[in-house]
Amino acid sequence: MNLVLLEPRDGIDSSVVTLTDARATHLLKVLRVTPGQALRIGLLDGPFGTGTVEAVDNGRVTLCCTFEKDIPPRPPIDLLLALPRPKVMRRLWAQLAALGVGRIILTNASRVERDYFDTHIVTEACFRPLLIEGLQQVRDTRLPLVSSHRQFKILVEDDLDDLFPSGIRLVADPGGKTSIEDALANRDERVLLAIGPEGGWNDFELKLLEAHRFVPVSLGPRTLRVDTACTALLAIAHSVLRRAPVRNV
Amino acid sequence: MNLVLLEPRDGIDSSVVTLTDARATHLLKVLRVTPGQALRIGLLDGPFGTGTVEAVDNGRVTLCCTFEKDIPPRPPIDLLLALPRPKVMRRLWAQLAALGVGRIILTNASRVERDYFDTHIVTEACFRPLLIEGLQQVRDTRLPLVSSHRQFKILVEDDLDDLFPSGIRLVADPGGKTSIEDALANRDERVLLAIGPEGGWNDFELKLLEAHRFVPVSLGPRTLRVDTACTALLAIAHSVLRRAPVRNV
User: Fold this and answer.
1) How would residue A244 be classed by pLDDT, with cut points 50, 70 and 90?
2) C-alpha atoms less than 13 angstroms from C-alpha of B165 in its C-beta half-sphere
3) Which member of A2, A223, A239 has the closest CB to residue B236?
């Protein structure tokens, strides 16, 4: 944990907050904080700040908090992901938040098992702590927005323009003739990156995506598993965007 | 499994091989192969080829194999990795082979638990099938070379020049002033990428690496967990090398 993330329900009162949960345990057992020590803190979806340890008492840590004025920007990349199997998705939540995504749009697809959507893994109670764990790892405060869509066609035809109104839409596909690097070079718009299930999108899905402005991009000759592909593509996309001359999203 | 990898111990006799293990099960249960069908095959550390199903019988699959002449090149990136905890390393083996590494050099470090080296995870019996699983996923035949080193100083001072005689040495470090993209732009040498333990290399280790030609490179402001960092850095390094004008390693 490289950042202590606070949120309204922690009840920050006159800038003082007392932590009693896993964060307090981590501060006491791993970081071994002592009164007077200054910690890097953040307000969820808000600014960074400094928390000075006021008191350490019986598993509780009291911090006196000051916050900066500016709120860090939302990461410029959104993800449209065919829901992987629950075991894989469980590991992905924190990784996605760590790599940096503004929005995670989970969708059904022909090669997704429909009952994955009935599992715990797509409930906010499950994924919210995992996303926060990822943010605390990399010192970000911006919680990815998450939505789940059981009907791919309705998502793409009716809902996607609201979720992602403008920007570059890319779909990872081994048949893509453009590389993700070329597709993003010197662009400064938001990016929506679509990643299909193990086995890929079917023809109907790929055509529907292309009809809705998704450009197929290839990651070279190696067809990675979905979780590895998510990390690899997000890392490369961020790497290319960091080098864009202007950043204004 | 996108490629059936064969090896000498499969006993290829007059180009005919009979599989009876997990590969046969996968071919029968998942891919549902039938006689006459042509499959993409490869010889471990050898060429690609085609395997035509000759017979399917009681859980066994017999293939008639022809091989191409050329052997694919070893991936141009090697990895020096402070051994992560066994649970993480278990997941990493297949991912590293899938992303493409020529050599994996595992090392101890101040922030590595020494007993990690006594676990099953660093034995060939454990990691070889996992590496092969990764190669079969991405259709590669080149098995990464693996070595383990319990003494970091001896590794860096005495052994490393044999393991990695020439090329670019990079060490991932949040304090790095160069990006990995800049360090590799327009270079066509082999790359050795060093990734430290959770919590990072200590000062002594980082200085020793720098004294032995490692250039610190940063991956931006987000400090990723080791497994995510491995995937992200290898993906970016391959992405930059793919764009190099000449590739001759």
Assistant:
1) low
2) 2
3) A239
Give residue-wise pLDDT tens across range B161-214. Answer: 999 999 999 999 988 999 999 999 988 899 999 999 999 999 999 999 999 999
pTM value > 0.90: yes
User: What is the CA B50 to chain-centroid distance, rounded?
Assistant: 24
Q: Which of A34, A221, A99 is nearest to B230 (CA)?
A: A99
For B200-242, give the DSSP string: ---HHHHHHHHHTTEEEEE--S----HHHHHHHHHHHHHHHHH
Chain A closest CA to B159's CA: distance in Å? 31
Residue B80 · residue B145 · CB < 8 Å? no
Segment holding A40, helix H or strand E: strand A38-43
Tally C-beta pairs within 8 A across A and B: 82
Q: In what order do the strands lie in the sheet with B103-107?
A: B145-149, B103-107, B77-82, B191-195, B168-172, B214-218, B178-179
With beta carbons under 8 A apart, name residues in chain B contacting A228: 95, 98-99, 231
